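New to this. Comment on this protein:
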Amino acid sequence: MPTVKDILETMDYGPAPEANGEVVKWLKARGAFGHFIGGAFTRPEATFAVENPATGEVLAEVSQGSRADVEAAVKAARSAQRDWARLSGHQRAKWLYAIARNIQKRERFLAVLETMDNGKPVRETRDIDIPLVARHFYHHAGWAEVLADEFPGTGPVGVCGQIIPWNFPLLMLAWKIAPALAAGNAVVLKPAEYTPLTALAFAEICAEIGLPKGVVNIVTGDGDTGAALVAAEVDKIAFTGSTEVGRIIRKATAGSGKKLTLELGGKSPFVVFADADLDAAVEGVVDAIWFNQGQVCCAGSRILVQEGVEEAFTRKLRTRMAKLRVGDPLDKCTDVGAIVHPVQLKRIRDLVARGEAEGAVLHQAECQLPAKGSFFAPGFFTGVEPANIVSDVEIFGPVATLTSFRTPDEAVELANNTRYGLAASIWSENVNLCLDVASRVKAGVVWVNSTNVFDAGSGFGGYRESGFGREGGREGMGEYLSFPAPKEKAEPPVHAPETSPVPESGAKAVDGIDRTAKMYVGGAQKRPDSGYSYAVMAKGRLLGLAGLGNRKDIRNAVEAAHKASGWGKATGHNRAQVLYYLAENLSARAQEFTDRLRSAGASKGAAEREVAVSLERAFWYAAQADKFDGAVHATKSANVTLAMNEPFGVMGIACPNAAPLLGFLSLVLPAIAMGNRVVALPAQDMPLSATDLYQVLDTSDLPGGVVNIVTGPREELTKTLAQHDDVAALWYCGTTEGAKAMEAESAGNLKVTWAIPNCDWTGPDGQGRRYLSRAVQVKNIWVPYGE
């Protein structure tokens, strides 16, 4: 018989299995599942098997959703959504409270079902996942209650199509359904093919509490079912999954007007400094990578360790890895459960083998894996070169890479050396260092001395190719709301620029004044790369010449914008001072701009009105530069969770043909007020109103490269900006066809896009906080406190 000392040394307490009898009985009673449409389950048809990844045993038969099934679900949702939206926030809150309470009543049942379906240890589903599911519905019941006060002037999006992955089946469902219902939307949700069972159990809860029929609909199936949902007549798509599929969805929804949220892959850095609590950091690795089989998109799979403690940290990590228990996920003593499906297990094995073949050294736990099921021993790589596949590709398994660094600057450079930007974890006893690094890492979520902390009260989502949009918190709630559509005005026709060379002297023949407008790049006027210009005409009269920009001009402007990175690091106060100065200089030249607009054919009253509103707008955005700030979220755990508004970096802006001065300023000013640098395409028919700003920009202390102006054919230049991987966001105001092309072409680096309807730019639709909110991305930094 082992002694207490032996037990403490081996940590071998024997098996402690969680009872699953009630779940087995529930599965047997149902046998096969249909879809949940219009408040009832359909008859099971064209079923496929759902297996327990730990044993390979079939748990249930689930229906394969067809296009007709999706259409029926969307129709039911559309019918129900109108009445659901008409309910008061208080009435919707009562339904959400009822869902939360019933989830709590079934916590143990749902935890066991999730473990059997997904393969993760029951400790995780019982202690983390299911309590968070209930938390999301309670939290969003509160949002429903206060919606009118907190989000005035907004309304629901309509019918939301939602597609969730297999790593957090029920939690991802709650992340998406709870805010959608709180906002007054109806939903059609497709769970992952491998893990649909807790979604179906959730459907039974909805039916049991009497949730109005059609408000929640669940259609099961594979990728074809998801594609049918993306193509269906829904108003929003919310997708969590791979970056590759995210690109496909971005292209498929281009020009449709559907609101889109993408939460995609990650290759998150886990940065350990020399002064960190190494034992705590090792436990962080265990929590981030091994306890959940690495099947978390935000897992810190790239461990970066400061050189001075690399040896000690690696030794501790190997020692801890050797103690992990791999096996039955229903055993409460299990640390590492099963991989969700044999297909995913094969992918992990293939990537690990390629990593070894390319020179990386694998350190893996020497453990006896179960004879049945999909299991993989936890491990980590050392000696990983940047070009190695495991440095770049998301493995999505219990395997990490470990690399050393010397200085904080090098740590930031390595952390950002990825196309992703979902999450990061920073470990140091120096809070100043942690917050400095956190502010410089390109990630939507940063944990300080912690990892994989989630809460309904805080937003979650990525930068760059990790997607866009947020889930959770105020930011996530806003994703399921819409502002009333502006009173859209038909855009004046855009005339194609003259493509044959025009003598620049022709502009002087009008009134003896040089009317040749060159490009404005890096704070200086430059000739177009093509070497010629196009004529700007009004009522048959030559007003001047403007550069006919091309791909090379866009490239030069983007490079200049990147060099002006100090603008984004400046304080809001400093940016405000520059913008106030710009507004003052614009005011001093108001008559010149009025005359220019009148020469283009505007009436005296219209020209004066446009200039007057332009001045008001310039002062307003200057005022907002240091006032549109973030928040500290109230989360369930003891954390100061900082929601910080950060600029995208380099933005492209294609301006409307209407209101050539005001339309330009209405889009450029909010972008630079928030710290972005822009490459702006002015009104194609009348670019001179924007190019006349060169002198104003030059005399306002605006750093060169913050505003770059490229004139020429809007659609062609917008396409170039959309395809440019060093442009992080793109706004476009123009034609429906142009908006569709912009969104489709932006899928390369999944840049954030906004197709802006043409409106009365002198009215309230042309200004507001929604422009500022569209000019930032939110980074949530979790700073723990207390014991």
